[in-house]
Amino acid sequence: MRRDLRLLPVAGGVWAVALLCVFVPAAAGWCALAAAGGAAFVCELVLRRADRAASRAALVLVVLSAMAAVSISALASLSARESVASWDGRVVEATGDVTSSASVGRDGRLWMEVQLTGIGSPGDVAPASAPVRIGIAPADGFDLGSHVRVTGEASATDPGERSALVVYASAAAVEAPASGVFAVAADLRAGFVERSSMLPDPGAGLLPGLAVGDTRAVSMELNDDMRTSGLSHLTAVSGANCAIVVGAVFWLAAWCGAGRAVRVISAAVGLAGFVILVTPEPSVIRAAVMAGVAMMSVLIGRPRAGVGMLALSVVAILIADPWLASTPGFALSAVASGALILLAPPLAKELRRWMPGPLALAIAVPAAAQLACGPIIALFAEQQSLVGLVANLLAAPAAPLATVIGLLACLTAPVPVMADLFTASAWLPAAWISETAHLTAALPFAQVLVVPGLLSAAVVGIVSLAAGIVLADGLRAIPAARVASGAILTVVLALGCAQVVLRGPLAAMTNPDGWAVAACDVGQGDAFVIRSQGSIAVIDTGPDPAPLADCLRGLGVTRIDLLVLTHFDLDHVGGVDAVQGMADVVLHGPPGDVGDQAILQRLADGGATVTTAYAGLRGELGGASWRVLWPTRDLRAFPPGNDSSVVVEVGGAEVPRSLFLGDLSAEAQRMLARTAPLSGGYAVVKVAHHGSADQDAQLYADLRPTVALFSAGAGNDYGHPRIETLDLLGATGASVLRTDQQGRLLVGLREGDLQLWTENRPP
């Protein structure tokens, strides 16, 4: 069936203008003026002519009019947003209405969207209207529709972000609870979450997310597994949930013998009720509109009309809120819905040649979504799931059951016996999805690390297009296209297999046997590995799990005897997920907030013994020994952070005497020299704070390092390592090794002599 694609240019033009307006606010007025002027000119042409050219001009008129509308919408919001953003870096008091469900972030805070009604200095709040994002300590009552007051430090967002400001609240209160249907929905959700929490894991924490989009009980580990396995769209209210609801209601109405009109109306009413139940925040409304349009067009057999309906929905949503154009969620919803309309039917038709129709459709829907969304994900995310299609196929039978039965459990809360029965019934499919996520995420190379941006999106897009051409039946008349696509997939598969072999079974074989100290190349951050007689210590984890996981895999590390977290800055603990469940003992510096405590709790949940480090602690690592030199137990001079970094000395047997200085500043280094039993002649010294300029020259002169390790990211914004620090270490006679230039660094001992290896040739 030929699709009517005439309205796609309208949606594309509006989307492009919306992106320009939100990323370059100064252009909004010019865009509105140019589009309105162009629309007036074309309108005059349309009125003068009545031939075929006039119909084409009418389409141009629609495009320009829509562009003008979205530009005016953006222009109307800019003044209020700029006024709110002017509070950047200041302590503010803000009031507003909660417009989203709350979710727990990696920092342990409860995060939600709020539409401001006022903002100002504490005690002096003036009227304001703009969307902001607030983070508070976990608390109850912050439901959609409630009116809240918060006090905290404000931070302006980057251009293009929907929230004009982020507020890290130190105090928060609910001034007026949610009322009306929002209050009823909140009570139903709360009752369902309470019932779910009484069930065992796995499944208990995931069930509220699958059914009503409440992800507060989803652990960080499960959340990461869901993302790695490509199932994260199920843990919050997305187009998949909305499509399931539409399909279920449509099928139920058809089973009852209702006509097409009644089925469509019933599905629409059911979707509206679902949106209210799970909180009608902008992201949910967007997902509901997109999925509703796509599912309706497929269910009533009108994919030709579905494309136009989807395009009009995109235009209407962007005119209402132009800042959605820059959000990944909006792009994924639109593209996935388009794939459901355009790509899923031909995929299903082709697959029916080899399998039953229901199975073909079950495979075609997630496959179409994965192929279409891959390039969008590559624009924003640093990893691509390689097991997403398989995981979605395994989860496909369980997702509708968990969603529909969970909704029934939520709606029957006034009848406890029924609610308990439905909740228990929904637990099994939720547990299935949880185990699917865990098992597929644990597969070797479940995801591949990419550099987000246009180039990655283009590469993924070419591969996705080739896969779509090979699978679909729409291009049988163009054999060359299939041959070229097959060649592309063959090359990609060959490269992938080579990568698996080289970074999997053969990874550890690419390193020399004699290494004892390794500096992992994790970008702008620290991650070091010490090995002695098969025992492993890791000092810090870098800013991201993927580079550390690659480094540990390459070094053949599968378990960690000692994990040291020197302090809780992101560039030292951001990659902690890579060692989750691998560490036996964790030593850490002073935690600063609930987010730091949450990291330690996750490590403890993974089986680690967690201990606060202080000067005087010591222990054994294989044939070597370690001791903590800093911070002192009674230290009060420095708050948690750089200057309270754990300083560790390791040495003995085949491990050269090494000192790891964390991120100490010059002042803390001088105090370390006065309080710690340091003596010169260190073989290896990890230079403090990535080689910043804030160093104590006398300390390094006293340490007399043979090798100075600098762990920094190439082209970082801080200028690390600084030239004066490089000169300082050079003056001590140390050999300088840098991860930003030489990649992974290895140091070992052979017959008393230091052996050095670098991943890249020194410049």
From TrEMBL:
Matching Gene3D superfamilies: Ribonuclease Z/Hydroxyacylglutathione hydrolase-like
Residue intervals of the Metallo-beta-lactamase domain: 524-713
Protein name in UniProt: Competence protein ComEC
Stored PANTHER family: DNA INTERNALIZATION/COMPETENCE PROTEIN COMEC/REC2 (PTHR30619), RECOMBINATION PROTEIN 2 (PTHR30619:SF1)
Primary location group: membrane
Tree of life domain: Bacteria
Membrane topology, from the record: Multi-pass membrane protein
Cellular compartment(s): Cell membrane
Native organism: Microbacterium hydrocarbonoxydans
TM annotation in the entry: 14-47, 59-80, 230-254, 261-278, 284-300, 330-347, 359-380, 386-408, 445-471, 483-502
Coiled coil: none
Keywords assigned by UniProt, alphabetized: Cell membrane, Membrane, Transmembrane, Transmembrane helix
